[in-house]
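Hi support team,

I submitted a single chain yesterday and got back a structure, but I'm not sure I'm reading the token output correctly. Could someone confirm the output below corresponds to the sequence I sent? I've pasted both exactly as they appear in my results page.

Thanks,
R.
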Amino acid sequence: MKNPREIDEYLVSSQMARRVMDRILGYKVSPFLWKSFYYGLSAGRVQSVALKLICEKEEEIRNFKAKEYWSIEGIFSKPSGNTKPFNAKLFKINDDVLKFNGETPNIGNIDEAHKILENLRNNKFKVLDIQLKEVKRNAPAPFTTSVLQQTASSRLGFSPKKTMMLAQKLYEGVEVSKGEGNVGLITYMRTDSTRVSQYAIDGASKFIKENYGNEYLSGNQKNFLPKGKNTQDAHEAIRPTDVFKKPEDLKKLDKNLLSLYSLIWKRFVASQMSQAIFDQKTVIIKALSPKGDTFQYFFKATGSEVRFSGFLKVYEFTKEENGNGDEDDLSVIPPDLLVDDLLKAINMMKEQHFTNPPPRYTESSLIKQLDSLGIGRPSTFASIVSTVVDRKYVDLIERKLFATTLGLYVNKILGEYFPDVINTKFTAEMEEELDTIANGESTYLKVLNDFYIPFDKDLVIAESSAADIKKELIEKTDIICPDCGSETGAFMLKKWGRNGQFLTCERYPKCKATLSVEENIIENKPAMGIKCDLCGADMLEKVGKFGRFYGCSNYPKCKGVKPITLGIKCPKCKEGEILQRRSGKSKRIFYGCTRYPDCDFLVNFEPVIQTCTNCNNEYLLKKETKKDGKFLECPQCKTKFELELKPVAAEE
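Hi R., thanks for writing in. Yes, this is the structure output for that exact sequence:
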């Protein structure tokens, strides 16, 4: 404040150009969508590119074809029997390193796997090589906005919007002790820089020396200089304002605030600590006399253990963040194993696998992708995701982003009529163009002209085609009109209205019959043995706004409905049954009791009536993660079970 500088007119012009460009695109393209679909839709320079990424991922998943492949693993030990058995995987045949999930996997079917097992039957094995090496891992940089949102999502389950709301409170200040007033606990939370002040580095160094010892302090005071040509570096990284305010000293904070503060605090302290050092051992095993002289088989076992924890003393990485693949703990490899030792195979196992489709974007992985492409700014990441969900372009189901029918149609139309501006390359390059205004290399007028002249040409063509686009979006169905179809043979048309897609009679306005699209997804599937309580007619399986249900076959004359349950009693009240529901706005799937609101049983995952063998809780939840695949979990003690109900892990 004592040394104010002159206003930088270049920076002002750059910001004005950004705002004008975003408003031109939004205010011009959104009305075009209203004419083509319905009022209330929106488009944007960054928002529409985010939708494009999600729709492209949807297309990849739909076109994906799984490929079969097999892996082979052996359990080995010394013939003397004194060595603890250990596992090793077949990784090479002759000179070919095995491919397990590519276009042409080496072991592509069960016959090939059987042939290899037959060749290895009754073989002897020898330790061909033992490789020992020291592996060092550097501490991570402090948080930028995008990395904080990604990490808070994966570790704490927070949405980007929630993360930024909590971070705003930590920045503005909260009361941590009586009489002290509000205290700002973190620095500004909208930043793309990893740089921190010298004051912060000195404070962290002092804290680490006092609490962990000199050996945990990095040899050189570290400052992570910002990377990337689009990094603005206007603010330092997100860090605690006072490193001596430890999370355990702030127990009075709200639980969510404390969790986020703890994450930020640990990441910053770890960033100033020494490297973690690992001992890594790799054992190569060769089959000595396989049947058929043309093949040589090699197995590999790899393990590592921490020699010096360094920054891991404060900030542990998750398995996904580690990226160590199939690496085991070093303790599984016998320490007395030597080169040329003979081994016997206690067992040889084959396992079938299938390649997985590309994973859907989550909120955090979408932000990571936008950040890596140079699209958007720290202040906009959270709003980008929430906007595409609010516009019903995307459904957020179990933290994954699914493109809706509306989103796919909007993306298709925008890509067809505005290819010059609704694409990742243009959006990323425009960020660079705006930076050229900020550093004086270009002008406000030139950059806007480069954008507006081709955009205006696209807009004129698009607006003249809006009426034709609306007609093209009308689909004729094979659903007979429930009002006049029996007399005229009229069918229902699928159209877009202000509430989305709906079905209307092709004879409109003579016949004004309408139906919800969701009600007819599985409308023709009869519910065997289920009768309507109102009129006695057969019921049909349908899908509505809030999930699956039975609807009367006489609809719309009779509007009788019944819920479709999972056929299991509610574990809480023992009277009602469990049914799947969907929230109307976000389409989030959850499970509840049919006696709601008298019974408030509610879970986010499908319940299975099976007693937990660890705590005797009466039901388990069916879950799926990238790490563990499909499994069952006790909601009370967090014990995990295989789907066959065998215990696989127990949380402490």
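A quick pointer for reading it: The first strand starts at residue 68 and ends at 77. Let us know if anything else looks off.

Best,
Support desk
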